[in-house]
Amino acid sequence: MAGNQIKLQLQVVRAKVLSLIKQNEQQAHEILHLQNQIENAKNIILSQKKEIETLQTQNKIVKLAETLSLNPEEIRALKKELKTYIRQIDDSIRLLSE
């Protein structure tokens, strides 16, 4: 009789262990899923930061264009500055598309 009781207790323990193993696997899967979501969120944030930088650069260009008069030397300086900003924008777009 005591042998049957021990066998029954072993079966209960085995069932609990199997249940815990299954829960552990499910939680490991959930952790992996959440880590992927975190990585995606980080990539979105990085992309948005780069877009903000691009927009800020464009805003600077607009402000520069509004404040400058149109004498030849200022036009050359503006063109030089615009080329620099355009290169930065192109670099930002290139990084965003990667």
Explain the overall architecture.
The chain is mostly helical and 98 residues long. It is 94% helix and 0% strand. It has one domain. The chain has 2 helices and no strands. The longest helix is centred in the middle third of the chain and has 66 residues, at 2-67. The mean pLDDT is 87.
Percentage beta strand: under 5%
- Average residue pLDDT: 87
Alpha-beta content class: mainly alpha
Number of helices: 2
Q: How many structural domains does the protein architecture include?
A: 1
Instruction: Give the terminus-to-terminus CA distance.
Output: 70 Å
- Quaternary state of the chains: single chain
Quick synopsis:
The protein contains 2 helices and no strands.
Key attributes of the depicted protein:
98 residues, 2 helices, mainly alpha
Describe how the helices and strands are arranged.
Layout: H1 2-67, H2 72-97
Helix pairs in contact: 1-2
